[in-house]
């Protein structure tokens, strides 16, 4: 669905042959960007009804965009899989419309607990373009980026208003996000408002940060701000696709073209620990992935914790054991040990909590906020019939606490922020926490499961 990578050698070769045969018939569109003053040019933005406001069914999480302190600018991956007659796919293509909504729902929603979602439509390069030569990829990739750049610049001029923001893109979206970081964000006033960038799904050489992104380092610590987090997910062995993964292009500022660096050392982070000091994490540390499967009833449902151990090595994030097909099924796009499609959904809760952690660090360090910013925990599990004593963590002391949606038998101490009691009814509860002091207040969601 979201793929843009060489699936196997024979498929790559076949696609290249077809690309050469059809190249004369393919027409690149004009480089006039879309008009982002038109609401129809957006998948999601405040005031526009979209699936970006959803949370996984039965999860207990809450959409808090109305009270969010930050924004997220999200760039969707390749969703034009079957068009062979165009280099760039129109935004109203029926397949694109359907798949854009799916990716928006599964990839932008980890951030709707702390940020308003802005997601542009753009004339993406169709999947088959990635099997053409590098020279043939330049024009369609530049056209797609021109749309994304225009959308981001519109957001900066008309919507940002000095708010902190996250930059998020997956796969093709990560390609364009990386170029935005290089050309539009780095060294400009808007860089001071960037909390962090999350750009999984493309193999990005470490040399990009050394040569191009000199002012935007890779994220190597969980609470680091102003950085870019990069990862790509595979099963423990990696599978056949791993051998050709570095053939995927990225933007090279020096040559001003999309290029690949086969065999180069790649940047990567473990998306559970978010730390180079903790390259390996056990399954017990995995906070939760929301199913992305084709089996009925297992799509975008309650996130499941402790699914995989993760190892950051050789430039990728290796997950073990193999994911159950009933929960994670990419429809045959890759299969096996290539988890490209699940780069975000497999770490849905991990991302949600890390975004909250980085935003709190940003607000304290950059803006000097002294309100009691609520700590990163977004999901909590307790046992039915067992006493609970769990404290709401805040970066700055709070004078008052409140919690809406607690199950019967649990209550929060308004002075200490400790949730106490004994829950008797199993279920998942959507709890909304609030902490206040003389400097202000903060709101956060807590998905509370009683087992």
In short:
The chain is an alpha/beta fold. It is built from six helices and 19 strands. The longest helix is centred in the first third of the chain and has 27 residues, at 134-160.
Protein architecture, described:
Helix 3 crosses helix 4 (172-185). This protein has helices spanning 9-22, 94-107, 134-160, 172-185, 206-211, 348-365; strands at 42-44, 70-75, 115-120, 165-169, 194-198, 227-229, 233-235, 250-252, 257-259, 280-281, 309-313, 316-320, 379-382, 387-391, 400-404, 410-412, 418-422, 427-437, 440-450. It is globular and about 65 Å long. It starts with 8 loop residues before the first helix and ends with a strand. A 6-stranded mixed sheet has the order 1-3-2-4-5-6, sandwiched between helices. Strand 2 (70-75), helix 2 and strand 3 (115-120) form a beta-alpha-beta unit. Helices cover 21% and strands 21% of the residues. The chain is built from 6 helices and 19 strands. It is α/β, with parallel strands linked by helices.
What keyword list fits this structure?
451 residues, 4-stranded mixed sheet, 6 helices, globular
Largest sheet: 6 strands, mixed
The helix/strand series, from N terminus to C terminus, equals: HEEHEHEHEHEEEEEEEHEEEEEEE
Distance between the termini: 35 Å
Strand content: 15-25%
| Total beta strands | 19
Portion of residues within helices: 10-25%
Strand order of the largest sheet: 1-3-2-4-5-6
Outline type: globular
Determine the number of helices (DSSP H or I, runs of at least 4 residues).
Answer: 6
Q: Which class do the helix and strand fractions yield?
A: alpha/beta
Mean pLDDT: 92
